[in-house]
Amino acid sequence: MIKEIVTDAEALSAPAQPATIDDVSVAIDLLDTMASLENAASLAANQIGSDKAVIAYLDEQDSPHVMMNPKILRALGPYKAEESCFSHEAISKVTRFARIEVSYDEVPEALLHPADEAAPADAQLVRRKKRLEGWEAELVQHGIDHCKGKLV
Ligand SMILES: [Zn+2]
């Protein structure tokens, strides 16, 4: 379901709560909302009014990805970036890392597209690790900041 973007700084400053398999609807709402916005390459759950640690982003091929409970394990190559955000207008200067390793919980694909496939009743989140660099790494770092209640 497409949600309205939250711009209230107080709501965006609260750290997110751990997400579970019961929060798959938040992931679907994030993907729907991100797809509805022009130029949206990443969104975090608190930007659509959920307090769960869920982020979505588009990779360089414009394919959407969802991460629950993302956490940066390693970060290399700091640089200064200027970022904008759907929740506030000003451009912010932040330090980002060119290469990161992230751990996160993956939502089984069948649960993200319930209309296409019957989801197994015992579906579980899968803990994964991923190395990212460049643009995707920056989007994920921005999203993880949102989960911490940090606005760039
Ligand atoms: Zn943002």
UniProtKB/TrEMBL annotation:
UniProt entry keywords in alphabetical sequence: Hydrolase, Metal-binding
Pfam family, one: Pep_deformylase
InterPro entries: Peptide_deformylase, Peptide_deformylase_sf
An MF annotation (GO) of this entry: peptide deformylase activity
Lineage: superkingdom: Bacteria
Similarity field: Belongs to the polypeptide deformylase family.
Protein name: Formylmethionine deformylase
Protein species of origin: Muribaculaceae bacterium Z82
